[in-house]
Here is the input.
Amino acid sequence: MPMAERGFQVTAIELGPNLAAVARRKLASFPLATIVQGAFEDWPLPAEPFDAVVCATAFHWLDQSVRVTKAADALRAAGVLATIATHHVAGGDGQFFLDAQDCYRRWFDDADVHLPSGAEVPRQSNELEESGRFEPATFRRYEWEATYSTQQYVDLLSTYSDHRALAATRRRRLFECIARLIDQRYGGRIRKRYLNELRIAQRR
Here is the structure.
């Protein structure tokens, strides 16, 4: 949406038909924006290359054997691949996330998750460098905090793929345990810290 608002010609690839429909509705007033429903890996590249390939919080879901080379093939000479990643980092109500491990030990398969500081999150660009298709990547990082009510935080957790993969009963019990913790010990509101990372690499 921000790129369309700036007048760029945008081709957006969306795997899910429902989200593609939402994107078409939101971008209906931008004639230079086109929504393609399908997988990036299967999408036939147009004859005219792009100035930029941009992927926000989804690059890690693409087929690792395809994503870098196809992004490079889609770009003009000196075009850029820009990926955005979001990391969960230490900060905010840190004690809450320690206390919540009791809930995860009871209802989740993976507990005792360590939240690194922002400085501990590695800058990863090995696959770009090893491909030989891109110049060394540059990184920009931004840390920020969000405040959630009990229901907002449970709603957030319900969007995480690993939480959605839980059996329905275990997921409900986990969410009940976390909601009770927030309500009883944290006054119905918690703060969570994030690190957003922009990685930019120019095609050779």
